[in-house]
Design a protein that fits this description.
Distance between the termini: 45 Å
Radius of gyration: 17 Å
Largest sheet: none
Helix content: 55-70%
Strand content: under 5%
CATH superfamily: Tetratricopeptide repeat domain
Shape: globular
Number of helices: 8
CATH class: Mainly Alpha
Number of strands: 0
Length: about 170
């Protein structure tokens, strides 16, 4: 990981963010979820164009049941990554995108299981399920070694025809 990035203008505001990111990861790993979330939010306040802290914040939100908030963080991270906003150099761009798409898919999968969606509009439920399936497949396509995405996308392939359309109707 590097604190350098190809952002225009003065980059001094990035100094130390890599170390803060590692501290946030360590906080989360040790069970300090609130401390980790605050660290990632602080990083994003300084530089909102970093996808990786956004992914980690989204992961925390997902794990704490804040599904819509996590979905928003993953969508923004994907938008940043698709614009070439990779920050961590120890993983390939495809691997980071795969993680982001896999986590978005997981957030959508969990949303599809929530009472509001299950007992709401059937078309909305179908749209959430279909988008989750597509995101799992995209995650697997980007990184075939993404075991979580491969597991969910693999099971979902049984329910899809050659065009990737659901056959569960």
């Amino acid at each position: 990981m590097t604190d350098e990035h190809d952002f225009e203008g003065d980059e001094q505001h990035l100094d130390g963010l890599g170390n803060q990111f590692i501290r946030g990861l360590n906080s989360f790993e040790s069970g300090d979820v609130d401390g980790a979330a605050e660290t990632f939010r602080r990083i994003l306040k300084i530089e909102p164009r970093l996808a990786e802290p956004r992914i980690e914040l989204g992961r925390i939100l997902l794990e704490t049941g804040q599904l819509q908030e996590s979905e928003a963080e993953f969508r923004e991270a994907i938008r940043i990554l698709e614009g070439g906003g990779i920050w961590i150099e120890s993983l390939s761009e495809k691997q980071v995108k795969s993680v982001a798409f896999g986590l978005l898919a997981e957030a959508l999968r969990r949303l599809a299981e929530s009472d509001d969606v299950v007992f709401g509009d059937p078309e909305q439920w179908r749209a959430v399920v279909d988008e989750s399936h597509a995101a799992f497949r995209k995650a697997r396509e980007l990184d075939p070694d993404n075991a979580h995405a491969d597991y969910w996308a693999g099971g979902l392939d049984i329910d899809a025809d050659a065009d990737g359309e659901s056959t569960l109707d």
